[in-house]
Amino acid sequence: MKKPKNYILLIFSITILSLLTYGILFYFNFFQGFITIKDNTITSDLLPDSKFTSSYKSESNFSKMTVSEVSDVFISVLGTKLNTETILYKSQRYYIPLELICSTLNYSLSTESDSLIISNQDSNYIISNDECIIDGITYQLRGGIITQNNSNYISISDIEYIFNLIANFDFDNREVSLLLPSSYSNIPETQPSQGKIALIRLEDFSASDSMLLNINQLKFKAIGQFLNSQGMKFHIAWVPRYKCPSDNIDNDLLSNYSMNNVGFINLLDYLINKGGQVGLHGYDHQSEDQTSLNGIELSWKYHSSESETRQVIENSIDSAIALNIPYTFFESPHYRATCSQKKIVEEYFQYLYEPKNPLIYHKLYKDNENLYIPTPLSYVKNLDVSYIEKELSNPRPGELSSLYYHPTLELDFINIIPSNNTFEFEYCDNSPLQKIVKSIKANDYVTIHVTELINK
User: Which phi and psi (to 5°) does residue 117 adopt?
Assistant: First the structure.
């Protein structure tokens, strides 16, 4: 009879020890104070220093990606179809002659040393080394400049930003129309310079069937324009490759050219230019016969070896670099990466946008020069944001106000209004995302990017 008693005592002791350990972690999880920003500066003992260097040197190189000519696409600007004999294609972007777009919009174009000068009576832009100086602020060109046959070509994405236009990709008629923006303010609302921080992440962004539709790409641009108009910084959890084995779909953006994919990368560029910061949400967010976004990519069961884990990470990085999509964080699909897999991720990324483990899910966790960023406010379930609103208005002590939202849920709240030369839309102010933004502003939060979480 002694053995059962000893066994029971052992189980009891382990249980007590586990509860005690959890209690200690729980205490430190909650009572370390809120992360705040003052005079636009974040200070906290929980933040890493700016010493991180990735161990990986990708062989991908955007500047060396193949450039080809496209003959079956038309470009129009404010209702006028451009007479261009050559449209270039590179890394899922279209390029047209810079001189042509300047003359169409009544700008002059000149060359000074190694710089291109774009000007009219009101504006003066300087392009040099794939950067554009606009009102004293440096803008990194999304597509860069391509020089071919003594002509300089600029991407549609950069035309959108520099000339304040919006591209509408009409896949049926093979036409890209550059339109005036909607009545939403193009000047972001100023955020408060101090307060508790908040983080927003748009989840599961991939070139799937729904995101390749013209109407949905326009709706996502409406979302970007809205967030920008409200002064909201946000994140995009991007899955570079979309697979649906049951339908024989494998949309690899590095090898599958289509106008729909060009529209998708243009959308990513647009959201980046509207305040979005992109992270890598796995490579294809699936395994075996699973469908991307639903499947699991990293876990004890899938891609569990060191070499397999590294392959997932490096494939995602290589895709981003080849497509010139800047990335700042990694998030394992469904937060299912094991401790050993996360240690490997730490070699490549300073920011892991997920909890360190199930016990540390309310606060930031620094591990040497890596930072784990959880989402304790969770996500929108069944279009109900009441829990998120409650946590924003009455946060638990020390809880990080961080959440994620599947933006496809927002599409039904947006209606694109047909217009000849202007991008117009109706956006229901009772949508989940609009409610979240209102709550963030009403409770004096300051939205930040993960890259601001660092000791400078």
Answer: -110, 120
